[in-house]
Design a protein that fits this description.
There is one protein chain. The protein contains 18 helices and 27 strands. It has 602 residues and is α/β, with parallel strands linked by helices. It has three domains: 233 residues, Aminohydrolase, N-terminal nucleophile (Ntn) domain (Glutamine Phosphoribosylpyrophosphate, subunit 1, domain 1, 4-Layer Sandwich); 196 residues, Rossmann fold; 153 residues, Rossmann fold, CATH 3.40.50.10490. Strands 5-6-7-8-12-13-14 form a seven-stranded antiparallel sheet. Strands 3-2-4-1-10-9 form a six-stranded antiparallel sheet, covered by helices on one side. Strands 19-18-20-21-22 form a five-stranded parallel sheet, with helices on both faces. A hairpin with a 2-residue loop joins β9 and β10. α7 packs antiparallel against α14, α14 packs parallel to α18 and α16 runs parallel beside α18. The chain is globular. Bound molecules: 5-amino-5-deoxy-1-O-phosphono-D-mannitol. 5-amino-5-deoxy-1-O-phosphono-D-mannitol binds next to α8 and α16. The site of 5-amino-5-deoxy-1-O-phosphono-D-mannitol has 16 residues, from α8 and α16.
């Protein structure tokens, strides 16, 4: 995915665009670029770099300011990371930036070649610019509308026309776009974060609406070019939560936010000690007669599903399966009308999860989405949404989104159990208090940082657990892989001796999570087995649980007495371990290589 911004008005366009790009850099950081439009029109001044936005800011000092412009921060999909492929792209009198994928761009490219038009870059974006220019006879509405009708796939475009210097245009299909007008001008961005410091009220235009931004206001037009009125939305979270607030990285700031966001997430769905989703207006019979729950998600969100699975099965008595969205999509899964499908996504924009959502909807099955970003595509396309209250998560490595997703999935499991007559009052009460557990883990950060030294020196690490702890092992290993670039493998503790234990030797440490009473003794045995083969063991166990003196090389304690709720303390410990390890290695923690915050391509 990429981030796009646009602005027209009385402020410095350079400043607004560069600030916006800085805030959207989490969406991709392979290259960055801006196009600045002068008041008299003509070709805009274009600056591009394969460095970060801060480098672009330096380059921009040398060029005059402007009243309007567009900008882009790229996560490469088509073509190498180089300046030619960096946005903005230009064709004839059209300059544009793009987020998404024009799926039929090869066909369009061939058609444009027949007209003697040859692109200079490898991107689908330049084809979009050429297509719009091919239709351009002086009327931007007509050119954009006709080009959009030809394009397939997902796209958000922000467009400048050389001979309309007083306007910026935008259009989207299946890709996010937000726009805002204030007394200071009109703003656009892939995410409200781009312009949040200028105002809180914004519009989220639907697919195929043409947005015409001027310094005085924003007008919307449907595909028949009729004006359309849109309802304004308001950002309902604390604007400051999008800043680092003195922390060196967003990741550590977001880890520290967990007590407050967990508290907020859990409280909204507990009324008089019972789980209650009425504030989200779910279909009244959503949980009725459900025999099976199928959770579909990617990455960390999928791990949240795995973490919650035992609670669904043990308390609500429903069978649960968990699947990564791309597999669900690729195997063309059969949709079962007696299954409740739960889709989990922080961004609400992940392409494979969105495709799964559409497939399930078409199949007519019950569907519940667990989403963090309000107004996201998945939120808009779902009849039933339960929101996590994590607030904006900027670091690529997901932390507070994970624990709030687990909390919401636990609440759904408890609600289903409650509806089936099971007394879950103890679990509801415990869930209300989990934020305190996380607070206590955060206070143990120095010990975790010390323990991280053992991991920072390794080339390979195993993460082991049983039952719910295996799900947490998966999440712990993903965290360390993505920000430390250390190869880590999560494995069921009980399965090691069936082959994989041959890899254990001195220098290959194991992080063993053991928070479930029913298999605690067996987990400790696994620690012994690895240690006797020379592998160091870092054990994560609840406070007070007995560990023999030689039971592990390092023991990290988490508050509580094990069971389901230990998921939160264990997750926070694993997040801190990954963060401290990456910090000790001097890694670019918030912007790990090759990654972007949400994956809007399949
Ligand atoms: O926005 P989503 O929750 O749908 O994103 C899914 C994954 O891409 C995401 O959880 C990813 O694995 C994490 N950023 C990793 O920390």
């Amino acid at each position: 995915m990429c981030g796009i911004v646009g602005y027209i008005g009385a402020l410095s366009a350079k400043e607004v665009l560069l600030n916006g790009l800085g805030r959207l850099e989490y969406r991709g950081y392979d290259s960055a670029g801006i196009a600045l439009m002068g008041e008299d029109g003509g070709a805009p001044q274009i600056l591009k770099t394969t460095n970060k936005v801060e480098a672009l800011r330096k380059d921009a000092e040398a060029v005059p300011d402007a009243h309007a412009g567009i900008g882009h921060t790229r996560w490469a999909t088509h073509g190498a990371v180089n300046v030619i492929n960096a946005h903005p792209h230009r064709a004839g009198r059209v300059t544009l930036v793009h987020n998404g994928i024009v799926e039929n761009y090869q066909r369009l490219r061939a058609r444009l070649a027949d007209q003697g038009r040859t692109p200079v870059s490898e991107t689908d974006t330049e084809i979009a610019a050429m297509l719009i220019d091919s239709y351009y006879r002086g009327d931007p509405h007509e050119a954009v509308r006709r080009a959009a009708a030809d394009m397939e796939g997902s796209f958000t475009l922000a467009i400048l026309f050389d001979d309309h210097p007083d306007k910026v245009y935008a259009i989207c299909r299946n890709s996010p776009l937000t726009v805002m007008h204030t007394g200071q001008g009109s703003f656009l961005g892939s995410d409200v974060l781009a312009f949040l410091h200028y105002g809180r009220k914004y519009y989220a235009p639907a697919n195929d609406l043409l947005c015409e931004l001027t310094a005085e206001g924003i007008a919307f037009f449907d595909p028949a070019d009729r004006p359309v009125a849109l309802q304004e939305k308001t950002v309902d979270w604390d604007v400051d939560s999008a800043d680092k607030q003195g922390y060196p990285h967003y990741m550590i700031k977001e880890i520290h936010e967990q007590p407050s966001v967990l508290r907020r997430t859990v409280r909204q769905y507990i009324v008089e000690d019972r789980v209650d989703f009425s504030c989200d207006d779910l279909e009244p019979d959503l949980f009725e007669g459900v025999e099976h729950v199928h959770i579909v998600a990617c990455g960390t969100a999928m791990h949240a599903g795995l973490t919650a699975k035992p609670m669904f099965e043990q308390l609500a008595g429903v069978l649960v399966s968990v699947e990564v969205s791309s597999e669900f999509r690729d195997r063309e899964a059969r949709i079962n009308p007696r299954t409740l499908y739960i889709l989990v996504s922080q961004s609400g924009e992940t392409a494979d999860t969105l495709a799964a959502l559409r497939r399930i909807r078409e199949g007519g099955a019950k569907l519940l989405s667990v989403i963090n970003v309000k107004g996201s595509t998945m939120a808009r396309e779902s009849r039933n949404v339960v929101y996590t209250q994590a607030g904006p998560e900027i670091a690529v490595a997901s932390t507070k989104a994970f624990t709030t997703q687990v909390a919401v999935l636990f609440l759904v499991a408890l609600k289903m159990a409650q509806d089936r007559g099971v007394d879950v009052s103890n679990e509801v009460a415990a869930l209300r208090r989990v934020h305190k557990q996380v607070e206590r883990v955060l206070s143990r950060r120095p010990a975790i940082a010390e323990a991280a030294r053992m991991l920072a020196a390794a080339r390979d690490i195993f993460y082991l657990g049983r039952g719910m702890d295996m799900a947490l092992a998966e999440e712990g290993s993903l965290k360390i892989k993505e920000i430390s670039y250390i190869h880590a493998e999560a494995y069921p503790a009980g399965e090691m001796k069936h082959g994989t234990i041959s890899l254990i030797e001195p220098g290959v440490p194991t992080v063993l999570i053991a928070t479930q009473k029913n298999c605690y003794a067996k987990s400790l045995l696994c620690a012994q087995e690895n240690r006797s083969r020379g592998g160091e063991v870092l054990l994560i166990v609840p406070d007070g649980w007995h560990v023999e003196k030689d039971g592990a090389d390092v023991v990290l304690r988490i508050p509580g007495d094990g069971g389901f709720m230990s998921a939160f303390g264990a997750a926070a410990t694993l997040q801190l371990l990954a963060y401290e390890c990456a910090y000790q290695k001097g890694m670019p923690i918030d912007q790990p290589r090759n990654l972007a915050k949400s994956v809007t391509v399949a």
